[in-house]
Amino acid sequence: MKAIFKKSWYIIILLILLVIFTFPIFLLIVKSFSDGWDFPHLFPQGFTIRGWELLNNDPKLLESIYTTVIIAVSVIMLNIIFALPVAKALSHYQFQGKSVLETILLLPILVPSLAIAMGLHLTMIRLGLSDRLIGVILIHMLPTLPYSIRMFKAGFDQLGIKWEEQARAIGVSRFWVFWTVTLPMLAPNIRSVSLLVYVISLSQYALTAIIGGGVVTTLPMIYYPFFNSADEKVIATFSIVFAILPIAFLLLLEVLMKIYVNIIRR
């Protein structure tokens, strides 16, 4: 009887959470098609596809989505490449100045990224990186890399060094140990880092505007100016497109992770 009672409460809680998380999305979809929905009306006074037509007629939409995805994926790859060795060194090794290094690596989180970006802008102009895609990718590393290092460090702390030592003891090369032992066991951390970095990069407006100079057009560059509009259905339409990108990325990431795990098992 107690087991049935606990199961019922578990189902009720899941349903409540499902409603809480899905209702705003459902409301956003309805809002994007509504033509007038003011208080105290419970239902829209009419329906229209004008918001979607306006979005579809924007000549920069597809280009901005493509640029946004390219930047986000590039930032994810760079975060993994740089954060993994740094996190492993901070987790598995003791050396002089370790605490100072950790503090320095956390500074982009403690200090507003906008303030640092303003200082880096002049440097990027001198290096020829301003108003270019590579410059925007590098500046997006600023608010993402510290989080990646912390999350990977937590993964290495939990993993320990014994697994790698056992693999090396039977003559396995460092690369193969990393590919077949370390990476699969860090899969949850890689998934979390990838999704977090993708969302942070996707939402960057100020950093992209400063370094991109309006030449590099991402989705936020077209999206945020629409907040000045009083047309709620247009804002809702853009919000849905914004929400689809991380969901699609998450699904693709899950597929790629499963393919990788299956390859390793063979």
- CATH architecture title of the largest domain: Orthogonal Bundle
How much beta, percentage-wise?
Answer: under 5%
Structural class of the helices, strands and pairings? mainly alpha
Order of helical and strand elements: HHHHHHHHHHHH
Note the overall shape: globular
CATH superfamily of the largest domain: MetI-like
Helices, by number, come to 12
Average pLDDT across residues? 82
End-to-end span in angstroms? Answer: 45 Å
The tally of strands reads 0
Secondary structure blueprint with pairings:
Elements: H1 2-33, H2 50-56, H3 61-92, H4 98-110, H5 113-127, H6 133-159, H7 162-169, H8 174-185, H9 187-202, H10 206-212, H11 219-223, H12 232-265
What does this structure look like?
- The protein folds into 2 domains: 1-48, no CATH class; 51-265, MetI-like (MetI-like fold, Orthogonal Bundle), CATH 1.10.3720.10.
- The chain has helices at 2-33, 50-56, 61-92, 98-110, 113-127, 133-159, 162-169, 174-185, 187-202, 206-212, 219-223, 232-265.
- The chain is 78% helix and 0% strand.
- With 266 residues, the chain is mostly helical.
- The chain is built from 12 helices and no strands.
Task: Write a brief caption for the model.
Helices cover 78% and strands 0% of the residues. With 266 residues, it is an all-alpha fold. The protein folds into two domains: 1-48, no CATH class; 51-265, Orthogonal Bundle (MetI-like fold).
